[in-house]
Structures are given as C-alpha cells and as structure tokens.
Amino acid sequence: MILPAFALLALSSVVAAHSDHNQAPVAGPYKDIWYNTLPGDGGIQADSVFSGISTFGRIPYHPCLASDEEKYDIAFIGAPFDTGTSYRPGARFGPSGIRQGSRRLNLYGGYNVPLKANPFHGGLKVLDCGDIPVTSYDNEWAIRQIEEGHNSILMRKPFTDANKKGISKTGKTLPRIITLGGDHTITLPILRSLNRAYGPVTVVHFDSHLDTWKPKVFGGSPSKTASVNHGTYFYHAAMEGLLKNDTNIHAGIRTTLSGPSDYENDGYCGFEIVEAREIDTIGTDGIIKRIRQRVGTNPIYVSIDIDSLDPAFAPATGTPETGGWSTRELRTIIRGLDGLNIIGADIVEVAPAYDTAAEHTTMAAADALYEVMTIMTKAGPLTLPENEADEW
Ligand SMILES: *[C@@H]1O[C@H](CO)[C@@H](O)[C@H](O)[C@H]1NC(C)=O
Ligand SMILES: [Mn+2]
C-alpha cells in the first residue's frame, strides 16, 4: 500500500501524541544542517562551492536590469555576445563559463595574500547582476543593448556613498562595473556607456592583438555592421573620442600584422605597446613600470582579452596566439596596478567550448578578475580626482 505524504504525517503525529511524554517533541527542519557561511545563492542557502547556482565567486545575485532595489559598489554583468568574432565563435558562453570557473575563489574565505586584502569582505558591496540580454541575430541592435544595459547599471547611486564619507567632492560617485564577455566587440558599447558618465577614459588593454585595426584592413568591411567587430572596436572608439589620447597602453601584444603601418595607426588611435616577449628582458616588474608610466595618475579602464595568456594556459579563446604570458605572470602584472584608480573592467574572448576538461581558461579568467576586484575594493568607493571630473 502507498500512503500519500499527508496521511503519513497524520499517522506519525498520532503516534507521537501517544508516545512517551518525556521524549522531546519532533522538531525541524534542522536548518543548521544545510545552512552555513558561504554567501552563494543570494546568501540564503549554500552547502558547498560545487553545488547551487553559479554567480561570480558565489557572491549574491540580483537581477539589476529588472530591479534597482539592491544597491552595490561593484557589479558583475555578463555580455554574452560573440557575433563580432573573426575565427572561433563561442564567447557567448563566456559569462556562464567564467562564473563556473570562479566557484572556488572564496572557498577558504577569499583573502588575497600578495595584495593583503579580501575583496569578498573589503567593505564594498559586490553583486552579480546576471547577464544583459543580447540578440545573436543583429549586431547593431546587440551593441545598443550592451551599451544601454551597461549604462543602466552604471548610472546608479552606489551602496557606499563616498560623498557622505567625505572622500569625493565631485558629487559624481558611481559604482564600478566588471563585464564578463563576450567577444571583444563589447568593449566599444562599454566605452560609449562610460563616456556618458566620464568623458574620454584611459584604457589599459591586455591582449595579444591590437584591436585598433581600420575596418578596411581587418575583415575588409563589406558593410557598416561588419566594420564593427572584435578587431576594430578600438579604432571606432578612438574616432568617436572615447579614449583619452596618448594615455592608453596595450600589454601582451604578439600578433602578426598587415604591415608596419598597423603600428602607426595604433599610435594614431592613442596607444603605446608593450610586447609579450618583452617579459624576457624587462620581466614583470618592467612591464608594470611601463604601464604605470603611461597611465600616470589617470583613472583607468582595464580590458583583459584572455588571449593575452599563452594557449597553454588559456586555450579556450576566439583567436589564440602562442608565445604569451603564463597565468602567474598575468596575475602578477595585474596586481602591479594596485593603487591605481580602476573605474571599471572587462574580461573577454573566453569561449568555454574549447577549454580543457579541467577548466583552465575559465579559472584563469576568474582569477584575473579576482585580482582586479581586490584592487578595486582596496581603493574603497570610486572617487574622481578633484576638479578633474569634467576633464577626463
Ligand atoms: C593622438 O596623439 C598622437 C600623438 O600625439 C597623434 O599623433 C595622433 O594624431 C592623436 N590621435 C588622434 C585621434 O587625435
Ligand atoms: Mn585578442
């Protein structure tokens, strides 16, 4: 005989009523059994890093595009766009892959030993806002979706009001947004969004490729839509005045060129270059020094193409190039930016379908962002340099 559950419950309560009165009554559910201190699943219920819904580093999720009820100082947002890619597609799965690769970031609490700070308990509120819905059928529309989605979560009062703490006098305190790509085209709508808040910005760009190519050089530009892709977005950004000229730098470059004129055009777009192979002569310290000399005290936007890493460390990417840095070297170089004012960041070109079963690429992407996130939380709420807000 099969008894329905309510019948069993009724039966057991009858049994309990007639049993020894000295016995403790049946209680429960025993929440302590499955509740613990991990903050995943919105901080409500999480039993381990390997179960439950993935957010970046298991931080709380809030659907920020649908609701502005939760405030934040740092927001992660996915931009699952990969129809601007020239070789391997698949970066539309980057946001979910990076979240999967980030599960263990705070397994032991998340304290960053070399940076001497814990980004998960650094005094700033960090949320995972999910993904911007992006069409895969119309690039122009998708790029507008990314710009407006990014801008919607950028133009909000942050959780921690820097003005109230007397840190900023500009009255323009905004949260920092970290975007999970997506192919590198997404950086163009992000820069357009940032421009609406800050004007031209200084970019530190980790990549094996220049991405300042003129459309006629890269892909031949058969149409206006095709001219905006993951090899040309910085050209457009420069022409649109989104970059603060002569302050930007690429690091990790090792691509072949159409010819030496690509470098001339790159300088015209406002960039200096540190080549990947320079690590052999100047080391990570020398590379950090070059980056810091170039950007000075400017607030910076950090854009990380995972292909700045060698394919041995990050095979799952759209256009891999051998001769790159190791994950250790990239993380050291990113940590070398500690103390700079990072206003926002992205990591792009993670295409998990080409990854190893051991998730090399998604882990590397998550760990690179962990360094960025630590630098941001160490710096406290985002503030602009006094009297410079209108200028940069
Ligand atoms: C950026 O600065 C460089 C070096 O001063 C200059 O040659 C170039 O024309 C400038 N580019 C733009 C787009 O204004
Ligand atoms: Mn690249």
TrEMBL record:
Kindly indicate where the leader peptide sits in this chain: 1-17
Locate the residues binding Mn(2+).
H184, D207, H209, D211, D305, D307
Question: For this protein, what does the record note about how its cofactor is bound?
Answer: Binds 2 manganese ions per subunit.
Q: Name one GO biological process term.
A: putrescine biosynthetic process from arginine, via agmatine
Q: Does the keyword Signal apply?
A: yes
Any single GO molecular-function term of the entry would be: metal ion binding
What InterPro entries would the database entry show? Ureohydrolase, Ureohydrolase_dom_sf, Ureohydrolase_Mn_BS
Membrane as a keyword of this entry, yes or no, is: no
The domain of life for this entry's organism is Eukaryota
A Pfam family this chain is assigned to: Arginase
- Keywords on record: Hydrolase, Manganese, Metal-binding, Signal
Supply the EC number(s): 3.5.3.11
First-level EC class: hydrolase
Q: Which reaction does it catalyse?
A: agmatine + H2O = urea + putrescine
Needed cofactors, names only, are: Mn(2+)
Family according to the record: Belongs to the arginase family.
Q: What is this protein called?
A: agmatinase
Source species: Monascus purpureus
